[in-house]
Amino acid sequence: MKFGGTSVGDATAMRQVARITRDAVAHWDEVVVVTSAMGRSPNPKDHVKVTDALLNAARAAAAGEDETYRRARRELSDKHHAAIDAGITSVDERRAIGDEIDKFLDGFEMLCASVRVLGEATPRAMDAIAGLGERMAARVLAGVIRSAGVMAESIDATEIIVTNTAHQNAAPLMDMTRERTRARLQPLLERRIVPVVTGYVGATLKGVPTTLGRGGSDFSASLVADALDATEVHNFSDVDGVLTTDPRIASDARTIDILSATEMSEMAFFGAQVLHPLTILPLVEKRIPLRVKNTFNPSHPGTLIVYGAARGGKPVKSVSAIADVAVITVTGRGMQGVAGIAGRTFTAVARTGTSVYMFSQASAEQNICLVVPKDSIERVKPELDREFAREIFSRDIDAVTVLDDAAIVTAVGSGIAETPGVSGRVFSALGDRGINIIAIAQGSSECGISLVVKGQSAQDAVRAVHSLIV
User: Fold this and answer.
1) CA 430 to chain centre
2) What is the Cα–Cα distance from 155 to 148, expressed in whole angstroms?
3) Alpha carbon distances (Å) from 370 to 330, 379, 398, 410
């Protein structure tokens, strides 16, 4: 069972997690909990999201500023100690865990001071700082669970999840991760002790802390589930499962009962905030079902994610959006029939380390457009200009142009590719609202249609496509 930041945002939320854990232990022989860092709680006076606070403090320190990390230390101390005092019954445990939290925060302050002196926050330093939130939360949550009468022990995932050295977005080394996870957790499970594992973090073969990318606690839970051959994974957040769209955009959004893994992966990649995009991958081979549930409404069945077809309902099951993207277009009549232009375009973009969300090419081969993160423009545009400098000089390519205010809106559903007229209804829904489509991408056997629109039209586009679902 993985619990997100709001699920462990304060002592009240943690006590709810402890109740869910106690019920799970009564039903299942072996239960593992994976926790995120403490998120924002319902208390309007609590504005602290721990991982954000840690990262913001590190960036401020790198810029030569010291008050931000000192203030963050005070706020983080208050937040964690408040959860300890209200959530843990044993005086001795409160003192012991409080001392551990203080040691972590001492380390945080020392790291930030070092970053300030150096004037640089390296990816390795950022990982060491960013992962502190989960390490603190695991200790507090384990104490709260013990106070609910369930044996529990906090485990740093740096002991069990082995990764490469790609700091801030590390990839797990699965064979060693499986070996270490089984060796560390199985003895606890055999004694009916619930391991409370830090999400988001891992470590290299040399023991250097890494992180799995933002939202990586979902991924962590799947890695543990794979290693232990789990029967199920339950991913808890503060919503009743996967919704048809963001309820802040469309108030009539509703919970989806069942999704295929392919549909969920498509949704996660194209902006749905429920799961980390890599969450499904470790579960596929062993076909471990994943259920997305609400910590604060645990009786709701949530959304079940399966590995076969998830038929039923309308062809379009959800619509999501990625904002803050840019469209970069390579245009020129001289491109027509010239081999290698597309390959050179992608090679140039790859040199900048930029991921391409989608691309489209006109059938007349007179332009190629790529959709990339907006913050990558300053890298990608000059690289393409250099790559095609000769063709631009000879007028074979007219220009490399940028539209820096765009969004990708994606309709997802396994019935899209095989149901006649779905694309037409999607385009008509946008046309009826006067929304212009800049580019389109749809694979012949895939379950999504992705459309690029201007940024200011994104929410209207989401609502227009969502009207086809409800």
Assistant:
1) 28
2) 19
3) 9, 14, 16, 16
First to last CA, the chain: 31
- 272: nearest Cα among 297, 248, 304: 248
Write out the chain's pLDDT in tens, 470 residues.
Answer: 999 999 999 999 999 999 999 999 999 999 999 999 999 987 777 889 999 999 999 999 999 999 999 999 999 999 999 999 999 999 999 999 999 999 999 999 999 999 999 999 999 999 999 999 999 999 999 999 999 999 999 999 999 999 999 999 999 999 999 999 999 999 999 999 999 999 999 999 999 999 998 888 999 999 999 999 999 999 999 989 999 998 889 999 999 999 988 888 888 777 666 788 788 889 998 999 999 999 999 999 999 999 877 666 678 899 999 999 999 999 887 776 667 888 899 999 999 999 899 888 766 557 889 999 999 999 999 999 999 999 899 888 888 999 999 999 999 988 787 778 888 999 999 999 999 999 998 764 568 899 999 999 999 999 999 998 86
Q: Which fold has domain 2-231?
A: Carbamate kinase (3.40.1160)
Amino acid identity, position 209: P
Say if strands 303-306 and 258-260 run parallel, antiparallel, or are unpaired. parallel
pTM: 0.87
Q: Could you tell me which CATH class the domain 318-466 is placed in?
A: alpha beta
Indicate the helix (H) or strand (E) that contains 103: helix 91-118
- The phi and psi torsions of 14 (rounded to 5 degrees) equal -65, -35
Do 348 and 383 meet the contact criterion of CB atoms below 8 Å apart?
yes
Domain locations in the chain?
A: 2-231, 318-466
